[in-house]
Every structure is written in structure tokens, then in C-alpha cells.
């Protein structure tokens, strides 16, 4: 493909052709009668059949498609060839024919000009005195085309030589394009201005809006030499005078060597139909033009803005090369924009302020051709004679600068000269940020090389400057990082760095298609991706270059020129042809001239190219043959074994040959469908007929895989493949129902349009479903450029397997399809139409699934197509839009609201079913699904809540209409039940408990509530648990407990978190022991567990009152009664434990009552731990010291053992509470009698503590103190108690007063053990001492 095809003899010299034999692979298409008479006179002896002339009404696509692929243009067709996109509009063809008739010279000598604008997707051609403008996105021949007359004041209308077409430059300015991305998607640029500039005469013409009948009148101007003087310097800060010219002036006063090299235009924000243009002349002058409805104003920004040195000539045509805007996305400021100027040695960045005043300022300059190679290109290297910077482009992010460079070199060996073409990629240095304030720093390095110089052609023919300066560069197409180079003689070459080498692909059509006028990029269906390259030809319409064509059809750079003149090495041509004949699979002829290390442009993997093995091809061919034989004869004998041998069952999923065959059946494009019928196409019987044919063939295919036993093999080994096959049938069934729905809408709309008179009414009757079909079809055409010559509707109804794209468009373009600026009634009607289409399609697919359920594989772990994220996203988009619409539309007819509400019900049901399907699949596969479940719950609750609120409004409205002023509650209840029946069903299936509760509550229907509680059993208690929570929230405890009569187990499980109510339910169930345990735990509960509760449970817990200590004692008494009523085994021990806890709570009240300072920060309503109570007693002085032994007495034996050290501290504290030294001294000095001594000892704390712990009437729980701390040494019966401090006596012996008062201390504890009336013998006391 790289080399131009062999030039065919001109059509005028085809006299020797045989009329009976056409060119091989050229379709025999008769020329329409309307064109034979026109062209027949100009081209004598033209054959009646053969390839149509490029200017005929239709250019055959088959001339570019191999014979084996002519019958099918699906996704698997050969994409190594250019793809025909669309014909010229008929008015353009007529103008070309008229121009051919009027011209006395041959057709090839007639010069045409044309171009393409990427921003608006508009293409234009200048033919004679007319400029034709249309969108290159639409495949329909009947596309809208605007024809503009170039004002006759430019010269004699019949003089073709005075205004050659290739001297015109056209700029398109879109008015508010970004506001409607869908219009760009459909090629509908509704408003655009055109600026026309002649390169030689510098004449300017401005059409404010070519699509408006009132604003397409041209405004023309011509800058005269007398009016161009200006004192504006290159920094742009000095005020200048605007010049205005309305009279035309000839070009005699302008130098023939000075021409306009480039012009760019941008709109002025906020100013109606105003824009500015920047133009550069080859002599270095920059011009600023201001276009308004009143006229055109201009001024020179700078004379010699690029600084011509003495070594340069003012006649240098390439001194100021090209202009390009900085991306608007990178410079979002509406008050101004930046643009770049490429000169013969540098890049300049300028800023233009658009509001409030127009001002131009140069920001920075970066030299490219310099002695320092780091700046860009190093000059004065050995062998270099001259360097030309030909053109420059900036990527969409304004991060990368791509510059086309030509270098004249000299071979040292042969002393011959040759040209070398290269691409230089520059990028901003890290951290660079220039503004108007820093515009003086022009000497600072701004850019840096992103990658080494990429050599496109290392050695090429030496060309003259006229040819070099005709080259243009375009970037931004697929493959990512590729660029296309356009030459003045009409060739287009795509260069791409792939697989560590530079590959070239030259676009060149056969059959004399004329020159390539311009190239652009299709707007991508995804904002973050590039589109395919699109090419505008001189005579053959618009063509696209698929990504695969560049990747597989590209060749290694040859030693030849980019022009049509041929190569210095003709042998390369044959090698290139051989390389492309094998689809680009031949290795490059030699390594790249320069290794490109930069990784941004090199694709790690190209997902679009999935190389299929020979085994795959053979298996698919065999399957097709066997299926064809089955259709003819019904025989399948031996099919399974043959397919097994070919490996037909080795691959899983959609790449399996069985799934691919199924996909090809449902995605087949019909041969007899045309692209010229537009909306009539969908209403025709052709669509239904082809869809029915596909369905019958797919049914036959299912029979084939069943009779051949392949179904069993697929069901057991390739479940995903079998699911894909069955889903193709689902989608086909859904598509057929969708087509019937569309036909019904079209019929109804035609009746509506017939009854409407005004144009605006007809427009509002437009079909939102038709817009959706157009969007989906257009997106498929963008993604598969082989479909570019097909109509959007045809693509939509043919690509059945890609029906998910319909929901993708809903997610991104719903506002456009419904029309947010329309009246609410119109929006509702369109929303109903879209919603009905979605539900109709999915319901038809689900019916197919139910009817063919025995054909499906086991569903475990499989995700149906209707559960995929793209489908759910589309359904949620339409559902959320309808909800918002119903909230805002107040003054809309009730019937319309009711219809939309019904559609919302259907969409909600389908969407929620999709969520349950995907969640089930993820659970079966063991995949993470928490986030998905949460999303499902949020959207479910929002949908059901909205449906129920709207339902209540409809009930009230219907009731008002029915009751006629008479109150009838029974009638309202009947209406309510009728309206909410469907909502009740959805909520019941999807656990919409809040909605179920509201319905039952509003109806006051306990019977319905109990029935739903029985039926809706789900996780965490199901609907029953939800009802219990609602009753607790509303403090309806009696109703809650009454429900426990019917739902005993459910309520028992629920009340485990609500023990204050659980014991009541347990008593009702005669579970007294369990009730006692519950009450006991409730009375002693220290924490409510708030930190462990979820928000809803925490809210319930906060509603309850915290019981006081007195309440807790009452609860313990209830627990005691329940334990005694239960009389289970061991209930006596349980009663003793309850009594002990009662004593501890009573002691806590007494202790807290005596404390004053230490109660701050304590929660006096909660029971404190025994250890904490004892420590409080130790700090409380004499009054509380004895209470510590009381607390110990009512604790368990295990507590006393584990806290023995604390018990020892209590005894030490008790000994310190009395002054034993003073007591001993007083008894001696005063001569106390025994009675007085004993009486004094009875008042000591040691006596009282000993009596409480070891006395005859001491009460304790779970054992006594002797087991933990004996009173005397001789009481120690265990070896581990032989230590000195292992008894109370041993502890006292360590007291500081024991040497003097030890006898009294031991007497006191022994008296306490014996009792208050005991008399201790002196000898015993002394022996103990």
C-alpha cells in the first residue's frame, strides 16, 4: 500500500478497451443515465460498464475489498485496506461535472481545493466560484450540504485562471460546539462561520453562519498596502489602529513572493458571531483580523515578527511556516487563548486576549535549529546542507509538539545529494508555567526533546522548496502516536512507531481517485481515545484508514520520496507490495534508521489485533462447512469427532469458534440494504425480514449443535461459550421486538406530524428512540471504520451482539436524546419512549431465556449480559432521569405522569433484577461484592421510595376524581391497593422492607403485615426483623410482644439485642429460667455495647432509659422470682448468686452515698466492679474500711483468690485505722481491768473485720475467707501458706506497732472469730504471741 498503485490510463484514452470485459475485481456498475450525457461528451469512447468514474453518483467499495470478503463487512473483515466512508453530496458532483464541461483542458488540470475541520467535523471543497460545506461523518448521500458563492468582486466569474482553487485557505469557527457532544457524534454541526483567505491576493471573506439563511451573506475585505502601517511592536503591548476596508483592491501592489502561509480562527466568547483570525506571511508579518457582522477589521501585529537576520532573504517563502492554536482544554480561560508560530528555525508562543480588548503578546521563543542538539536539531553536522521546518502540530492535551523536518544531505562516498524526512517530538520542560507577566523571559529554554529524532525516510529524492512547503502534518489519529503527512501533489502517508521500528502506510486509491485534499480524525466515541484517520479525496469522496491497516499494512521506510514521482530504488516498490500482500506479517526489510527509545508512542499491546492460528481458521472453516451441509441435508454424522480433531472446543468464551459462528449469524450485514433512505429505512419491511432470517438461521444453528452432540460438549467444557451463543438469540429476539416498537412509534408519529402545521411542532414530535438508534449506530461506525459507508440505523439493527452499546449511550447521551430544553410534557413523552424501548428489549430477551432454559448451561458463576455494568448504568440513567422529571413536572397532565410512573416501575424491576443477578454470580464465584451490594441497596431504596411517594399522589388524585366530594374510605383503600400492587411485588422480591412497612402502615392492615412477615424471610431476620425495629422505634412494645405470639422464634432471635424486652417474651414462652438469666444479665450490664452496634441499632439503644441502681435491684428481685418459678436443677445456687449481687448493689449505694469528692466522673447508675468498690473503700477512711470486707464477702471464691493481695491490703488498712501503741500505753499506765481492755478491743476495726469474716455469724457466698487467707498460722493447712504473710496473724506481725501491742492485736482478731461475748484466756493469747 505504501507505493502508489500503477497509474491507470486516463479515462480519455480508453478507446482500446473491450466493452465486454471489465477490469478484474471491478464491479459492473452501469453509469446512471443522468450522468452519461454529461460525461459522455467530455470522455469519448467511455465503456458502459466497469468501475464507475470518481464523479459518478456512487463509488464502489468493492474495488478495495478482496474477493473472499466482499459478501461480509463485519468486525472480522480485512482491515488492511482503506475503507470507503461516503460519497460527495450530489450538489458537489453536479458542480464537478459542470466544471468539467466548461473547462477546455483535461480534468486533471482543473485544480480543486478542499479541507476538513476536526473541531466541527465539517469538510469543504472549492469548485469554481462555489465553496461546498458538509459533515464528513454521515454516510448518507442525502446529507445536508451548504453551497456558498464566492463574491464576484474577486475577479471575472468565468475566468478560471484568476482564482485557482489551491490558493484558497478556509477556516471554520464553530459557535458553541462544546455544548452538544451528541451533535458532534451525529455529525450535526448546527452553527458555524467560515473564513476564506486567498494566499496570494490576501483577500478575506467571512460568512457569519453558513447554516443560517439570514447570516450566510458574505462580508469581504482586502488589506491595502496603504492601510497596513502600524506601530505595534512584537511584544504586542502598544495600542494600534484598526483598519477597515469594504472596497476591493487588486493584487497588483502586492509582491508575488509574499504569500499567506497559515491562518487560524477562534470565536470571541460572549460576542455574537464575532471571531478573530491570526495570519502569518512568508516574510514574517503577523496579521490580526477581527470579524463582526458589521465588517472585517485588521491590523498588523508585528512586522518581521520572526526577526529576519541579514543572512536571510525577505523573499524566503518558508520564513514563517505555520500557526496552530493551543488546546482549549489546556487553556480553559475564556478571556484569551495562546497560539504557536513555527518559523524556519524556532517555535514562538503568543497570547491573544479576547476580552475586554483584543491584545496580542509574545510569551516565549524556543530555538529548534541550533548548534546545541539538546534544543532540537543540531545544525552544521557533516553531510547536512540545509534544514527545513515544514509544519508543526500540537496534541489535544497541548503537551507534545510534533514537527515535520526535511534535511538536505550529501553522501560522502558518492557525493550525491538526498533528502531525509524526520519527525521531531518536543514537550514542555517539567515545571514550566508561562504567563503574561513572565513574557519577557524569551531566552529561557522552554521545551525539551521527548524522544530522539524519528527518521521517516532516510534517503529520498531531492525535492524543490515548492514541494517541501506544500507538505502538511496532522496528528491525533489511530494508532496512538501516529501522524499523517500530506504532500502538495496529493499523497497521504501515515507514519507510526510500532514494535521498535517506524512503519509507513501510504494512502493511494486505484482507478484515478484524484489527489488527497486533506486528512482529519474521526471524533472518537470515547473522550479519552483517538479516532481513525479520515481522508478527503479530490474525486472519490471520503475514506477512512483503519488502525489495523496502519499496523499490519505499514512497511519499513523506503529510500523514496513522499511524492508521486517514484523512487530512486524502484525495487523497493515490489517488496512493499509483497509485504502488504501478507497483511503486514513480513518482517521489516532492515532495522529502523534511529531507535526510538521513548515509550509514550509505542504501544505495549494492540488489543484490536488478535492473531488467529491456522487451527482456529481450519476449525471455523470446518464448522461453517458442516453447518452448511446440515442446512442442505440435515445430516450431522461424525461432526463432533471432526470438530474435536480440529480443536474447536479448546478455547472458551466469545473467541470459541462456535460463539464466533453464532455472532457472525446475528451480526450479518445484508447486501441489499442501502444507505440513502434515512428514517424510512427503519419503517421498511427489509429490517423485519432480515431479523427474521437471522432468527431462523440461529435457530437452525442451535439445532445443529444439538443434533451433532456439540451442545453437550459445550455445556460441560465451555459454559461461557454456550452462554454467549444463547445470549445472541436473546439479543436477536429483543432486537426484533425493539424494531416492532420503533415501527409503531414511527406510524404514530407520522399521524401526529400530519396534524401539525408549524415546523417547531414537527421538530418537537421527533423520536428519542430514533436519536438513540442513530447514536448507537454512529458509535459502532466510529469503532469499526469498515462500517463507515453504512447508515447508522442499518448498523444498529445489524450489530445485534453489541446491543449493550445502546445502554452505554443512555449513560452518556440521555440528556440529548430527551432534550432538556424542551417542555416537561415533551421530555416525559421522550423519556417514556426510551424507557419502553429498554424494558421491551430486556423483557423479550428474558422470555427467550425462559422458553429455551433447557438449552442453557448451569448458571453457577455466569453473568448474563443484562447484568453487566454498562446495562445497569444505562438503566439507572433513565430511571434517575424519570424520577427527577416526575419531581419537577408539577403542572403536567396526570395521565402523562401516570404513564411515566408505570415506565419507572418497569425500569426499576428490570434494573433490580440485573443487580440480583450480578450479585448472585459474584457470590458463586467467591468474588468481592460488598460495594456492589451497597450500591444495590441505595438504588433500590431510592427507586422504591420514589415510586411509593408518586403512587400516593396518584391515589389521592384518582380518589378525588372518583369520590365526587363524598368521603368514602373504602373506595380510597381499594384504589390504594390497586395502585400499590406492583410496587408491593417489587419490594417483596427485592427486600424493600421500608416500602413494605409503609404500605402496611398506611393501610393499617395487620393481616397483610403478618403475611409479608411469613413470606419475606431474608438475611438478618428478613422483614420480621425490620418490623420489630420499627415498633421499637415507635415505642410500640405491646404490639411488638403481641407479634411474638405468632413469630416466637423470630422475636426471640431479634430480642437478643434488646434484653429489656427479651425476658417478657421468655416469660410468655414459660421459659422462666431463661428469663431469670436475662434479667440477671440486664441488671448487672455495665455497657450497652454502643461501640459494637451499627447506626440503626445505636439509634434504638439511645431511645432506652438507663436504669438506676434501685431499678437494677428490682430487676434482680424479678430474676430471683423467675428462677424460683422455673425450679430448674441448681436453682438454689442461682438464687444465692442473685442475693449476693443484691447485697453488692446495696453496698455500692451506701459507699457512693458516703463519698463526696471521688464521685465526680463516675456513672452512678451502672454497677461498678467489686475491685473498684473495694479500692474506693480503702481510700474512704474508717467508715468505709469495713465495707471492703462486706464486698469481699459477697463476691465469688474465684474473685477472692485472684484478688488475695487486695484482701491483704484491706487487713493492713484495718490495722492502721486504730492507734495500737496509744491503746497499749493507756492500758498499762492507767491499769485497765480485763473488762475495760476487752471492751476497748471490741471497738477496734480488727475485731469487727475478724468478726465479719471469721465470726460464727459471718455470711459469705461461695466459700469462706479461710480458703483464701486463714486467721492464724496454725490454721494454714497448705504448703503454699507457710509464708509469714499467708495469714492475718502473719500480716499483723509485720505491723509497726506489733512489738508493743501485738498481744492486743491478736486478742482482737481472736475475739472477733469467737464472737462478741467471747473471753480470751490470757495464756492462750500469750501462747499465740
Helical content stands at 40-55%
Biggest β-sheet: count, sense, barrel? 5 strands, antiparallel
pLDDT average, as an integer? Answer: 77
Taken from the alpha-carbon principal axes, the silhouette is elongated
Please mark out the parts with pLDDT under 50 across 5 or more consecutive residues, or reply none: 1-76, 155-162, 226-240, 246-254, 308-318, 566-610, 674-679, 756-765, 1089-1094, 1278-1282, 1320-1329
The total count of helices amounts to 42
Radius of gyration: 47 Å
Question: Order of strands in the sheet with the most strands?
Answer: 10-14-13-12-11
Kindly report how far apart the N and C termini lie: 122 Å
By secondary-structure content and strand pairing, the structural class works out as: alpha+beta
- Count of extended strands: 32
Our estimate of the beta-strand percent is 5-15%
Domain Nucleoporin Nup133/Nup155-like N-terminal: 87-543
Subcellular location: Nucleus envelope
Region (Disordered): 1-37, 557-593
Keywords: mRNA transport, Nucleus, Protein transport, Translocation, Transport
Amino acid at each position: 500500500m505504501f507505493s502508489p498503485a500503477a497509474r491507470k490510463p486516463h479515462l480519455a484514452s480508453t478507446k482500446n478497451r473491450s466493452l465486454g470485459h471489465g477490469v478484474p475485481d471491478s464491479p459492473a456498475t452501469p453509469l446512471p443515465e443522468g450522468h452519461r450525457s454529461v460525461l459522455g461528451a467530455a470522455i469519448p469512447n467511455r465503456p458502459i460498464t466497469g468501475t464507475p468514474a470518481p464523479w459518478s453518483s456512487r463509488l464502489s467499495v468493492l474495488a478495495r475489498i478482496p474477493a473472499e470478503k466482499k459478501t461480509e463487512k463485519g468486525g472480522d473483515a480485512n482491515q488492511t485496506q482503506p475503507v470507503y466512508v461516503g460519497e460527495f453530496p450530489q450538489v458537489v458532483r453536479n458542480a464537478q461535472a459542470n466544471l468539467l464541461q466548461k473547462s477546455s483542458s483535461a480534468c486533471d488540470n482543473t485544480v480543486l481545493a478542499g479541507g476538513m475541520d476536526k473541531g466541527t467535523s465539517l469538510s469543504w471543497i472549492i469548485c469554481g466560484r462555489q465553496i461546498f460545506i458538509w459533515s464528513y461523518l454521515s454516510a448518507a448521500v442525502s446529507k445536508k450540504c451548504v453551497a456558498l458563492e464566492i463574491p464576484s468582486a474577486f475577479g471575472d466569474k468565468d475566468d478560471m485562471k484568476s482564482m485557482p482553487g489551491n490558493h484558497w485557505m478556509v477556516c471554520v469557527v464553530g459557535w458553541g460546539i462544546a455544548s452538544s457532544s451528541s451533535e458532534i457524534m451525529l455529525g450535526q454541526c448546527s452553527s458555524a462561520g467560515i473564513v476564506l483567505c486567498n494566499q496570494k491576493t490576501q483577500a478575506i471573506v467571512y460568512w457569519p453562519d453558513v447554516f443560517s439563511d439570514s447570516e450566510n451573506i458574505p462580508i469581504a475585505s482586502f488589506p491595502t498596502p496603504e492601510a497596513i502601517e502600524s506601530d505595534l511592536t512584537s511584544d504586542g503591548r502598544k495600542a494600534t489602529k484598526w483598519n477597515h476596508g469594504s472596497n476591493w483592491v487588486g493584487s497588483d501592489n502586492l509582491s508575488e513572493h509574499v504569500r499567506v502561509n497559515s491562518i487560524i480562527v477562534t470565536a470571541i466568547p460572549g460576542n455574537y458571531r464575532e471571531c478573530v483570525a491570526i495570519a502569518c506571511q512568508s516574510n514574517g508579518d503577523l496579521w490580526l483580523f477581527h470579524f463582526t457582522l458589521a465588517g472585517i477589521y485588521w491590523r498588523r501585529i508585528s512586522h518581521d515578527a520572526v526577526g529576519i537576520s541579514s543572512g536571510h532573504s525577505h523573499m524566503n517563502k518558508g520564513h514563517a511556516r505555520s500557526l496552530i492554536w493551543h488546546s482549549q482544554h489546556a487553556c480553559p480561560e475564556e478571556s484569551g487563548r495562546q497560539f504557536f508560530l513555527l518559523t524556519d528555525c524556532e517555535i514562538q508562543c503568543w497570547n491573544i486576549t479576547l476580552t475586554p480588548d483584543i491584545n496580542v503578546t509574545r510569551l516565549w521563543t524556543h530555538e529548534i535549529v541550533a548548534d546545541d542538539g539538546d534544543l532540537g536539531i543540531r545544525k552544521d553536522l557533516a553531510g547536512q546542507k540545509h534544514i527545513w521546518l515544514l509544519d508543526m502540530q500540537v496534541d489535544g492535551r497541548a503537551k507534545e509538539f510534533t514537527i515535520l523536518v526535511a534535511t538536505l544531505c550529501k553522501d560522502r562516498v558518492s557525493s550525491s545529494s538526498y533528502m531525509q524526512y524526520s519527525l521531531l517530538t518536543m514537550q514542555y520542560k517539567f515545571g514550566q508555567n508561562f504567563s503574561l507577566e513572565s513574557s519577557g523571559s524569551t531566552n529561557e529554554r522552554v521545551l525539551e526533546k521527548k524522544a530522539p529524532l524519528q527518521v521517516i525516510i532516510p534517503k529520498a529524492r531531492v525535492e524543490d522548496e515548492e514541494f517541501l512547503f506544500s507538505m502538511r502534518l496532522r496528528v491525533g489519529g489511530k494508532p496512538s502516536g501516529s501522524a499523517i503527512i500530506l504532500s502538495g501533489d496529493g499523497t497521504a502517508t501515515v507514519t507510526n512507531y510500532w514494535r521498535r521500528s517506524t512503519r509507513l502506510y501510504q494512502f493511494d486509491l486505484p482507478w484515478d481517485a484524484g489527489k488527497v485534499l486533506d486528512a482529519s480524525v474521526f471524533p472518537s466515541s470515547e473522550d479519552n481515545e483517538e479516532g481513525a484517520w479520515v481522508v478527503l479525496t479530490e474525486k472519490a469522496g471520503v475514506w477512512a484508514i483503519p488502525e489495523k491497516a496502519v499496523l499490519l499494512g505499514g512497511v519499513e521506510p523506503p529510500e523514496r520520496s513522499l511524492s508521486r514521482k517514484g523512487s530512486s530504488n524502484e525495487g523497493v516498490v515490489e517488496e512493499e507490495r509483497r509485504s502488504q500482500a501478507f497483511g503486514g506479517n513480513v518482517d521489516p526489510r532492515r532495522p529502523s534508521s534511529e531507535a526510538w527509545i521513548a515509550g509514550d508512542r509505542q504501544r505495549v499491546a494492540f488489543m484490536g489485533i488478535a492473531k488467529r492460528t491456522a487451527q482456529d481458521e481450519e476449525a471455523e472453516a470446518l464448522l461453517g462447512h458442516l453447518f452448511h451441509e446440515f442446512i442442505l441435508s440435515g445430516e450431522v454424522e461424525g461432526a463432533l469427532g471432526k470438530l474435536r480433531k480440529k480443536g474447536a472446543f479448546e478455547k472458551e468464551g466469545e473467541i470459541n469458534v462456535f460463539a464466533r459462528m453464532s455472532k457472525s449469524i446475528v451480526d450479518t450485514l445484508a447486501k441489499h440494504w442501502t444507505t440513502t433512505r434515512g428514517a424510512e429505512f427503519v419503517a421498511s419491511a427489509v429490517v423485519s425480514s432480515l431479523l427474521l432470517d437471522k432468527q431462523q438461521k440461529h435457530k437452525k444453528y442451535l439445532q445443529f449443535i444439538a443434533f451433532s452432540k456439540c451442545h453437550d460438549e459445550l455445556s460441560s467444557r465451555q459454559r461461557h461459550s454456550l452462554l454467549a451463543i444463547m445470549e445472541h438469540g436473546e439479543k436477536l429476539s429483543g432486537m426484533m421486538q425493539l424494531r416492532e416498537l420503533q415501527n409503531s412509534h414511527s406510524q404514530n408519529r407520522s399521524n401526529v406530524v400530519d396534524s401539525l402545521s408549524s415546523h417547531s411542532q414537527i421538530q418537537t414530535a421527533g423520536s428519542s428512540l430514533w436519536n438513540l438508534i442513530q447514536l448507537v449506530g454512529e458509535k459502532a461506525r466510529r469503532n469499526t471504520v469498515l462500517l463507515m459507508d453504512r447508515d447508522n440505523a442499518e448498523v444498529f439493527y445489524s450489530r445485534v451482539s453489541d446491543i449493550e452499546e445502546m445502554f452505554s449511550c443512555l449513560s452518556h447521551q440521555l440528556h440529548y436524546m430527551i432534550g432538556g430544553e424542551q417542555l416537561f410534557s415533551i421530555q416525559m413523552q421522550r423519556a417514556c419512549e426510551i424507557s419502553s424501548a429498554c424494558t421491551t428489549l430486556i423483557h423479550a430477551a428474558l422470555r427467550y431465556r425462559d422458553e429455551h432454559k433447557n438449552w442453557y448451561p448451569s448458571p453457577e458463576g455466569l453473568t448474563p449480559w443484562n447484568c453487566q455494568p454498562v446495562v445497569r448504568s444505562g438503566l439507572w440513567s433513565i430511571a434517575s432521569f424519570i424520577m427527577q422529571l416526575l419531581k419537577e413536572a408539577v403542572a403536567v397532565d396526570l395521565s402523562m405522569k401516570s404513564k411515566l410512573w408505570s415506565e419507572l416501575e418497569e425500569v426499576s424491576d428490570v434494573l433490580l433484577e440485573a443487580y440480583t443477578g450480578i450479585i448472585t454470580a459474584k457470590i458463586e464465584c467467591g468474588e468481592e461484592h460488598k460495594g456492589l451490594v451497597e450500591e444495590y441497596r441505595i438504588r433500590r431504596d431510592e427507586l422504591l421510595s420514589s415510586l411509593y411517594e408518586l403512587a400516593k399522589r396518584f391515589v389521592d388524585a384518582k380518589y378525588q376524581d372518583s369520590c365526587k366530594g363524598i368521603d368514602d374510605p373504602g373506595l380510597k383503600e381499594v384504589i390504594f391497593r390497586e395502585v400499590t400492587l406492583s410496587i408491593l411485588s417489587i419490594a417483596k422480591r427485592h427486600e424493600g422492607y421500608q416500602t413494605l412497612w409503609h404500605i402496611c402502615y398506611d393501610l393499617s392492615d395487620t393481616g397483610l403485615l403478618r403475611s409479608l412477615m411469613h413470606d419475606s424471610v431474608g438475611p438478618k431476620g428478613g422483614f420480621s426483623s425490620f418490623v420489630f425495629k420499627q415498633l421499637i422505634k415507635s415505642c410500640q412494645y405491646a404490639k411488638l410482644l403481641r407479634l411474638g405470639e405468632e413469630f416466637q422464634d423470630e422475636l426471640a432471635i431479634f430480642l437478643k439485642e434488646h434484653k429489656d424486652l427479651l425476658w417478657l417474651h421468655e416469660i410468655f414462652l414459660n421459659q422462666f429460667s431463661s428469663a431469670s438469666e436475662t434479667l440477671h444479665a440486664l441488671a448487672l450490664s455495665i455497657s450497652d455495647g454502643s461501640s459494637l452496634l451499627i447506626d440503626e441499632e445505636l439509634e434504638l439503644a439511645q431511645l432506652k432509659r438507663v436504669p438506676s441502681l434501685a431499678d437494677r435491684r428490682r430487676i434482680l428481685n424479678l430474676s430471683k422470682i423467675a428462677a424460683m418459678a422455673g425450679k430448674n436443677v441448681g436453682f438454689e445456687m442461682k438464687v444465692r448468686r442473685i442475693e449476693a449481687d443484691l447485697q453488692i448493689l446495696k453496698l455500692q449505694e451506701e459507699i457512693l452515698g458516703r463519698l463526696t469528692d471521688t464521685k465526680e466522673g463516675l456513672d452512678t447508675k451502672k454497677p461498678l466492679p467489686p475491685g473498684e468498690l473495694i479500692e474506693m473503700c480503702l481510700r474512704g477512711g474508717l467508715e468505709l474500711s469495713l465495707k471492703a470486707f462486706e464486698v469481699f464477702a459477697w463476691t465469688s471464691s474465684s474473685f477472692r483468690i485472684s484478688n488475695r493481695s487486695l484482701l491483704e491490703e484491706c487487713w493492713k488498712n484495718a490495722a492502721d485505722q486504730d492507734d495500737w501503741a496509744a491503746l497499749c500505753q493507756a492500758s498499762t499506765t492507767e491499769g485497765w481491768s480485763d473488762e475495760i481492755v476487752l471492751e476497748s478491743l471490741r471497738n477496734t476495726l480488727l475485731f469487727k473485720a475478724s468478726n465479719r469474716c471469721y465470726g460464727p455469724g459471718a455470711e459469705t457466698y461461695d466459700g469462706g475467707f479461710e480458703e483464701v487467707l486463714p486467721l492464724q498460722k496454725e490454721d494454714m493447712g497448705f504448703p503454699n501458706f507457710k509464708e509469714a504473710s499467708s495469714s492475718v496473724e502473719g500480716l499483723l506481725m509485720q505491723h509497726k506497732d506489733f512489738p508493743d501491742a501485738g498481744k492486743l492485736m491478736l486478742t482482737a482478731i481472736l475475739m472477733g472469730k469467737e464472737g462478741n461475748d467471747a473471753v480470751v484466756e490470757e495464756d492462750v493469747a500469750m501462747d499465740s504471741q
